[in-house]
Amino acid sequence: MTLAEPRAAVSVGPFRTVPNSITAVRTVVAVAIGVAALVAGSVPLIAVAYGVYWLGDMLDGWAARRLGQETRAGAVLDIVSDRACTAVLCVGLVALVPGIAVVAVVFLLSFMVLDTMLSLAFLCWPIVSPNYFHEVDRRVWAWNWSPPAKAVNTAGVVVAVVLGQYPLALGIALAVVAVKLWSAAVVVGLLARDGRA
After folding, report:
1. Across the chain, how many H-helices and E-strands are there?
2. pTM of this prediction?
3. Out of 8-17, 31-40, 73-82, least confident range
4. Which CATH number fits the domain that encloses residue 174?
């Protein structure tokens, strides 16, 4: 099933929206707190930075839906901002807690490479964001962007690390890599199926 002509124009939407402003603010604040935590050598401050990042990420998504301001430009800004926050906070956490280095490498490679490519794949179809990927393929959406998948994919690793369960964190990170690789293979097939490859 083809959702639209392969070369059909799709609006990216306005860039100046309330959700995009929230995304920008939460990114600047989380990164600034993360850098301050690294300079101060404070793990609790890194936790605060993660809290700002996650709360801001939930708030910008909620505002986008509530205000009817979901846009493709906003989705891309959110994806890029998530990577900025994650890179700074994860590297800061490794500097402060070197024992998590192996977990961090697996997690960062998965999130920064595999998950970024998967998250941006929505741009190949006329949908607003990865949150609507169920319109393309429900299985890929369920394993990557459904609320439970989002929670496990990122928070699962971080919570296991915070609890000192490094083997569990590594297990979760490796499971996420497997899901991302499977999802990437499915998306490549979908691109070919829909004439978008």
Report:
1. 9, 0
2. 0.89
3. 8-17
4. 1.20.120
